[in-house]
Structures are given as C-alpha cells and as structure tokens.
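Exercise: predict the fold of this chain.
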Amino acid sequence: VRGDLEVTSGPEGTIGEFFAIIGNLVVAPMPQPGPMQQLSVEFGDGLRFLGYNSPIIYKESNELILDTYWTKADKSLQNYTQFYHVLDNKGLFVAQQDQLHRGGTYPSGAWKLGEIVRDQISIKLPPSLPSGTYTIYAGLYDGQSLKRLGIFKSEAPTKDNGFILGTVNIP
C-alpha cells in the first residue's frame, strides 16, 4: 500500500475514532505446485497422492521438511490423517509425523474435486540419529477408527496400505 494517510486530532488533541479506506484486499489462491517428483498413488475414497519436492534436512533443528501434493477425484467428505514414517536401512522406525492436511486447517473433506493441495510436512528427527540413507513411508488413515485407507493403484512399492515415498540422505 502506498500513499499518505492523514490523521486529524479529536477534541482536546486526542485522536478520535477514524477509519481509512486503503484499498481492496485480494486473497489469491495458493500457488500451483512447482517442480515436483511425480509419484501417483491412488487411495480409496478418491484421494490421490501426486508427488513431492525433495526433502530438506535442517540438522540444527533435527527436522526433515517435505512438500507433498494431493488431489481428490471423488466427493468424499471424510477427513483423513496422513502419516509419514522415517525408516532406517533395516526397515526400523526412527521418526514419524501424523497430521490432517495442512495441520488441520484444510482437511481432505473440504477439498474441491480436482484441486491440487500442497502440504508441508515437518518430521522431527532424533538428535542422535546417525548419518545415512533413510526411507520415507507414507499413507492415510481414518483418525477415528485408525484404519488405513486402501491403496488401489501405485507407482511406488506398497505394504500394509502405505507406500514408499522415497529415500533421504541424512548427513
């Protein structure tokens, strides 16, 4: 916003109630996904994982940050919880993050058909985690019943209604 705003004083030099019309507020939609590693995984209820951006590791805060992209091809109103597990080279669990999409601010039941939804996932890593290559395993589940949503078609290896999203090298 540019320009001058004139404020006049009220009785006895105090500033009284005033308002100024500065302009219109335009709320733009979230930007469409940038370059991503495409990886199609189709779940029941019309939800589909589209891909992800390469994970970023913040060693000072022991965090793995991952942008994921999703869409919906059915009119389901169900809100699903997404899970991300970090596994070591023996397949053992070392860290996880479970959350509704966009931290619960935009759950899957609210999405429009065909809309691309970008979500940023932050996985806290143990401070003592040794350097190495780790696998990211992901999926969806019903937060009430804890039952995982089935996978019907996947470009990624699947197991127990989850899929291998990829690997990450932790320095």
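Check your answer against the key: The chain has a mean pLDDT of 85.
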